[in-house]
Structures are given as structure tokens and as C-alpha cells.
Design goal:
- With 267 residues, the protein is of the alpha+beta class.
- It has helices spanning 21-29, 54-60, 76-84, 90-98, 105-137, 141-149, 154-160, 162-178, 185-208, 213-231, 237-265; strands at residues 4-8, 16-20, 38-41, 46-49.
- Helices cover 64% and strands 7% of the residues.
- Helix 5 runs antiparallel to helix 8 and helix 5 (105-137) runs parallel beside helix 11.
- It is elongated.
- The N and C termini lie far apart (64 Å).
């Protein structure tokens, strides 16, 4: 099956194509395609520069051989191929560039869903992080009052209640997410890995020592960490919804087994 690609310039919002590699070579020779030109990678579901794909770059921009003065004669095969090629109208070219043809419409549709995903994920994740902050800070409220009142060493108090540190981070991160500060995604992923790993180990240890709630808390912590991590990486709408659902399930699990059950039934 011939590989075909949709392409666009970095500053353009519309795509052209699909073109096979031979056509891309022709466009490159005409100066209409460069290593900065973007092509849509179906595996990555993203626009990638031609120069970033070493194999495709070498095929589109092969090393030039020495020039020959011999003129290539047109054969009967070439004439037959020219006759078989469909005519391309100006309106058809414009429709392809605007992404309104059957071949290019799905590219525009993917871009629209990617924009919707980006617009929803940040505020939704912000709300969930604020909910997480509440579930972590509430059990450590007395420690927080001690910090504000100056009772004891702050560092010692925080080390005794690491949940409070996680809650404070989630509180700040949640506010920044509501402000669409997506630059902190790497920090949120780090918090998900570090905090999730710590809580899973902690609650599994509680479960081993006889606390049956520890298993549910460990599972909730793992769901929360995995959901937050995935939500900061994907632009796929379905994956984003599943990630937010996992994050919410983790928060609900922690709130129920970590906060509500101790209140109603004691520690």
C-alpha cells in the first residue's frame, strides 16, 4: 500500500494532500516543501516536521547525484500514465487545502477534537485537583492550625503529615489549571508519580498490617495518579475522558475510605 501524507507549512492552518513520497520529492525540488514542513503522523496523532523523521527526510530530500545533460525521452508508458491521471481543478485544490474534501475532512475533524480536548482537560483537571487538595488537607487540619499558630517546628510538622504537602501542591496546581497554566504539566506528572507511588506503598503496608481500607486507598491512589498522568499527555478526547474518570474515582475512593469512614465509624 502506497504511503500518503497530508502536509502543511508551520504557520498554515490548512492541510494539503494526500501526497505519496514521489509527489513530496517533486514538491521539494520545486521549493514548495522543506524540512520544516509539517506532515500528519497517524501513529503519533500529531503534526511532525519532515526533518524530524530521518527515514522520510532521506526519501524526500535524497542526496543529489551529478547532473546529466542527457534529455530523457518520453515513452509510451509515460503518455499512458499522463492520460490516466485525473485532472485537478483550482476549486478542488482549494477544497483540499481547506480540508473540506472527503480525503482531508478527517484531518480537520481530528484537529477540532484536539482543540476541544485541550480546552476541556485543563479546567476539568483543575477542579479535580482542588477536590484532591480538600481530601488531603482535611485530615491534617489540626496540623495546619499548629503551623499557623506557630506551635512546633514547621518542617517537623510537615514531615509528620506528608498528606498535607500533597494537598498544598494540589491546591496550587488546581488554581493554576483553572488559569490554563499548562506549563506546569511536567510538575503535575512528577507529583502523580511520586505521590502516587508513596501512597500506594503506604496504604498497602496498612493493608498488610490488618487495615482492610488500605487496599481500597491504595487502589484509589493508583487510579488518581494514572488518571492525572494520562490527562496531561493526551489530546485524544476519549482517552482524556477516561483519564478524568479515573482521577475522579481515585479522589472518591480516598474521600470515602480515608475521610468519611473514620468519621462515621472511628479510626
Amino acid at each position: 500500500m502506497t504511503e500518503e501524507y497530508y502536509i502543511r507549512s508551520p504557520e498554515a492552518e490548512t492541510a494539503r494532500g494526500p501526497y505519496d513520497v514521489e509527489k513530496l520529492v517533486t514538491l521539494a525540488e520545486a521549493g514548495q516543501v522543506s524540512v520544516e514542513t509539517l506532515y500528519y503522523d497517524d501513529d503519533l496523532e500529531a503534526w511532525v516536521a519532515l526533518g524530524a523523521n530521518a527515514e522520510l527526510r532521506d526519501r524526500v530530500f535524497p542526496r543529489r547525484k551529478s547532473l546529466s545533460l542527457r534529455k530523457r525521452e518520453q515513452t509510451e508508458t509515460d503518455s499512458a500514465e499522463d492520460e490516466e491521471r485525473p485532472e485537478v481543478s483550482v476549486s478542488g485544490m482549494l477544497a483540499a487545502a481547506e480540508g473540506t474534501t472527503e480525503e482531508t475532512r478527517y484531518v480537520k475533524e481530528r484537529e477540532r477534537w484536539a482543540h476541544r480536548t485541550a480546552a476541556i482537560s485543563a479546567p476539568a483537571l483543575g477542579i479535580l485537583l482542588l477536590a484532591s487538595a480538600a481530601t488531603f488537607i482535611y485530615p491534617s487540619w489540626k496540623t495546619l492550625e499548629g503551623i499557623f499558630s506557630g506551635e512546633g517546628d514547621i518542617l517537623v510538622l510537615l514531615l509528620q503529615q506528608p498528606h498535607l504537602i500533597l494537598g498544598a501542591f494540589d491546591l496550587v496546581a488546581g488554581v493554576l489549571m483553572l488559569l490554563a497554566a499548562t506549563e506546569i504539566f511536567p510538575l503535575i506528572r512528577f507529583r502523580a508519580m511520586l505521590g502516587g507511588g508513596y501512597l500506594v506503598v503506604l496504604y498497602l503496608a496498612d493493608f498488610v498490617h490488618g487495615d482492610t481500607n488500605g487496599l481500597f486507598l491504595a487502589a484509589g491512589s493508583a487510579l488518581f495518579a494514572a488518571g492525572v498522568f494520562a490527562c496531561t499527555l493526551t489530546l485524544n478526547f476519549r482517552v482524556m475522558i477516561a483519564s478524568l474518570a479515573a482521577t475522579a474515582a481515585g479522589i472518591i475512593s480516598f474521600a470515602f475510605f480515608g475521610n468519611l469512614l473514620p468519621i462515621f465509624f472511628g479510626d
